[in-house]
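Subject: sequence -> structure tokens, single chain

Hey, anyone have a minute? Need the predicted structure for the following. Not urgent.
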Amino acid sequence: MASRITVHLIRHEKTQANRERKYIGWTDEPIVACAKAIPFLQSDIVYGSDLVRCRQTANGYFPQAKFIATEQLRELHFGDFEMKTYEELQHNLMYRAWIDDPYTVTPPNGESLTAFCDRVITAFRQIITAEQSYTFVVHGGVIRILLAKYGLEEKSFQQLLANHQTIYTLTWDSLTDFRGGARCTSYSEALTMENEPM
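Reply:
Had a minute. Here:
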């Protein structure tokens, strides 16, 4: 449809660290299982993070598409919390402070949530430049940032979830609305494969 922007946001398939509920940010770990093509969504170009888990997922979901990767769409850099679980960190005072107030506390040797938000939104706005459809294969944190900024309902980063094997679709009526910072005008969620467990 003319004069319309549609954005599909898809989280990469699970890695071993995801299965083990570890914080995985910039660690370049592959996915556990091959992603399957999404029969009802076709894209010639897919944008995403440069990390291997996004590349592999994009190749599985959209085998014929060109994948355009950028470091700016990586997950949050968790610093000293990287590749650790909640159980390993729960008695760490800095971790507790970060969980309680992630906007003012930064993981040691990691990235602040504000810096993460800024780089993701900047990269997103640099890509969305015309009234057309866009597909992204990115990380859970990236999707949560974008939904917090552009979703229909006003929710914080902490209130949002981004599941694997789910397509989050946002639509704007015009490029002018999007460039002005407006929230999307419609929003939907769909599984990548019908009747497949999340």
